[in-house]
Inverse folding.
């Protein structure tokens, strides 16, 4: 059990943060920028801070992770303060809500239910969430619009699969991707008035199918793409270094020279990884 001193210390800092936010939002003497903000204007910062938390985790930088988690907590406090001002709820309501939710979704810990594995718990968790959505008159396929698109596509696919609307295996998804790619090529080869709009639609369909393929292989497509971005940046920097070391520059190098440097960077990376 935590000591009384430790609990008092935590409560002190939580109250301090809440007081700071109240002061920033005070009509008299508050911060003009903070006072101008709304749920809508703050939402992009909330998403940005969540990504910065993930970035600190990727870099295994615990000092930075502590700071980024603080920034994310500030976002929670900011939204709660605006809600309190509007008479909706306050920070205590936010904490009470998540406490109630965690207890309700862990009946094997806080109740009498018996669960034997993490997979069984995941299934039970999703079933409880589905029951909550029914109580809220929410549809099975409803997923928050603000979620990153690849993540949202995966969740939509999972929810459709839970009611049996899914490909039997990855073969069907691969066939669907081939179909969508063919439709994309067809859209690109036409001179239709709405060619760009149709191509955007077909690319969207292809990406949606890609997310479902990742789901069938139990791969997080958002994480996979993030890693691919990091890999491309790393290899691009190595390519740039090779071009500069040879006395050239990216701006003056030909495409063939850049490609040769890129392939050399890939080989060097593979040699290092064994």
């Amino acid at each position: 059990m935590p000591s009384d001193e430790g609990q008092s210390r935590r409560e002190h800092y939580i109250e301090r943060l809440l007081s700071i936010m109240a002061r920033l939002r005070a009509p008299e003497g508050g911060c003009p920028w903070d006072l101008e903000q709304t749920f809508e204007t703050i939402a992009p910062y909330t998403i940005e801070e969540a990504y910065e938390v993930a970035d600190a985790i990727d870099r295994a930088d615990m000092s930075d992770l502590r700071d980024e988690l603080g920034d994310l907590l500030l976002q929670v406090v900011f939204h709660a303060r605006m809600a309190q001002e509007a008479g909706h709820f306050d920070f205590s309501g936010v904490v009470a809500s998540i406490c109630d939710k965690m207890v309700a979704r862990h009946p094997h810990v806080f109740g009498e239910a018996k669960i034997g594995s993490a997979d069984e718990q995941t299934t039970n968790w999703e079933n409880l969430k589905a029951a909550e959505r029914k109580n809220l008159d929410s549809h099975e396929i409803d997923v928050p619009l603000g979620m990153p698109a690849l993540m949202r596509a995966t969740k939509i696919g999972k929810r459709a699969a839970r009611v049996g609307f899914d490909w039997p295996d990855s073969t069907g998804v691969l066939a669907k991707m081939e179909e969508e790619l063919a439709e994309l090529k067809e859209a690109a080869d036409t001179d239709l008035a709405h060619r760009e709009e149709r191509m955007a639609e077909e690319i969207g369909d292809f990406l949606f199918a890609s997310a479902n393929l990742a789901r069938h292989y139990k791969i997080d497509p958002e994480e996979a793409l993030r890693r691919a971005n990091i890999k491309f940046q790393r290899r691009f920097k190595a390519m740039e270094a090779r071009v500069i070391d040879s006395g050239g520059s990216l701006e003056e190098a030909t495409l063939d020279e850049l490609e040769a440097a890129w392939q050399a960077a890939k080989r060097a990376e593979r040699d290092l990884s064994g």
Remarks:
- Residues 191 and 198 are 11 Å apart (CA to CA).
